Amino acid sequence: MPEATETRILLADDHALVRRGVRLILDNEPDLTVVAEAGDGAEAVEAARIHQPDLAILDIAMPRLTGLQAARELARTQPGLRLLILTMYDNEQYFFEALAAGASGYVLKSVADRDLVEACRATMRGEPFLYPGAVNALIRNYLDRAREGGAIPAKAITDREEEILKLVAEGHTSQEIADILVISVKTVERHRANLLEKLGMKDRLELTRYAIRVGLIEP
Questions:
Q1: What are phi and psi of 112, to 5 degrees?
Q2: Cβ–Cβ < 8 Å for 140, 132
Q3: pLDDT tens sequence across 13-60
Q4: In this structure, is residue 73 part of a structural domain?
Q5: How far, in Å, CA of 6 to CA of 33, rounded?
């Protein structure tokens, strides 16, 4: 198959075994090739900058940056890069956040062997790929919003505050957070203070509990 039709893929998942399985599925196809792997969201952003892939496949639950946070960053810094979310979560909230983050599709790990290759090809054709349950969720959400005459409610915190919250909850110091997000320590401290004020919390422990509750980190 000519080089021009080959899709170069970045694969990000914090479980090496999952990456190996997904890589086997993809590398078996003549038009798909994995050119880089990453074990967390921050690594994925860096790997995409270095390898310039055509498509990034991102797990949701990863350390440092989640797949959704990484997707938002990649959509901002590499607008030409296509994004696919690969997840074990059949969860409407994550699904809508994935679309909002710029992902073209949402594939469940449980059926990756059936859906992933077609999802990659659809995404590269510029078409969305949605698993059947997601289509139902999309229609239901649209009808609910049409009935209520409203939009999807805004999140309580900004995307940047969410990134800071996740890293704080994972136990990173302000200096480490500044290094990961390439911002100053002073900016980290400001965001942290804003988070505590907005969420009505007083310390890291309360922020960590909140991060677990909203699915940013696993307990």
A1: -60, -35
A2: no
A3: 999 998 999 999 998 999 999 999 999 999 999 999 999 999 999 998
A4: yes
A5: 7
Q: Note the pLDDT tens digit of each residue in 123-174.
A: 888 887 876 666 666 677 666 666 666 554 556 788 899 999 999 999 999 9
CATH of the domain at 197: 1.10.10.10
* Helix-helix angle 174-181:185-199, to 10 degrees: 110
Phi-psi group of 149: left, alpha or beta (phi > 0 → left; psi -120 to 50 → alpha; rest → beta): left
Query: How many Å is the Cα radius of gyration of the chain?
Result: 18
Q: What residues make up the domain containing 26?
A: 3-145
Q: Which long-range contacts (C-beta less than 8 Å, at least 24 apart) are formed by 93-100?
A: 93/215, 94/60, 94/68, 94/215, 95/134, 95/137, 95/138, 96/137, 96/141, 96/152, 97/68, 98/60, 98/68, 98/71
Provide the token pair at 112: 């990756």
One domain for residues 93 and 191 = no
Give kind and range of the element (H or E) at residue 130: strand 129-130
> Are the beta carbons of 66 and 23 closer than 8 angstroms?
no
pTM score, whole prediction? 0.68
Closest by Cα among 23, 20, 18, 64 to 45 = 64
- Bridge-based pairing of strands 129-130 and 105-108 is parallel
